[in-house]
Protein: Type-5 uracil-DNA glycosylase
Organism: Simkania negevensis
Amino acid sequence: MTLSELNQIVSACRKCPRLVEYRETLPKRSAYKDEAYLREPTPGYGDPKARLLILGLAPSAHGGNRTGRIFTGDESARFLMKMLYQVGFANQPTSFSRDDGLKLSGCYITAAVKCAPPENRPLKEECDNCLPYLKQEFALLPHLKAVLALGELAYKAIFSVLNKENLKENKLPFKHASLLSFGEIDLFTSYHPSPQNTYTGKLTEEMFISVLNQIKRRIDL
């Protein structure tokens, strides 16, 4: 299977009735009332030779669910792409739509859950349904040296993929700017770049750039 083939499968997924209903019936936000909402699962995107995998929680209701690309067309995208551009992982500091010219270099972005969940809170069974897609993405990115988990849910998802030694997750709890080594793959963490974190100062640009620079130093060795 190729990444393109996997992404086609992801885009057609209807495993989770609650998520399917939510994404397909969600009322439009007034700012986008004249725009079409794609309302499909959002597959990953980026450099197939990526050395860094960036893992988010799920597409936002009026961002990824509308545009069809995670971290596109919302406030989390505004923050993330500005930072990726500054350190050289993106060719531009903005992410508005799937045809905006964005190209990622050395990194690949995906979500632990491919559909927008109500209140940004997927259920455990919905996370479990999406986990095989994440495992396949990971297997189809053979040049990976690092993963950046954005938030606790993303951390738990990728931890289950990388954890070959049966380490106890509750003994390695999520915290910002941590680093765990799983053989040839380093797992980095950051608070999610959601408005509730960036607007309150829980996650600042300086904090996020620091994590990205640490990652670059590690993968450039």
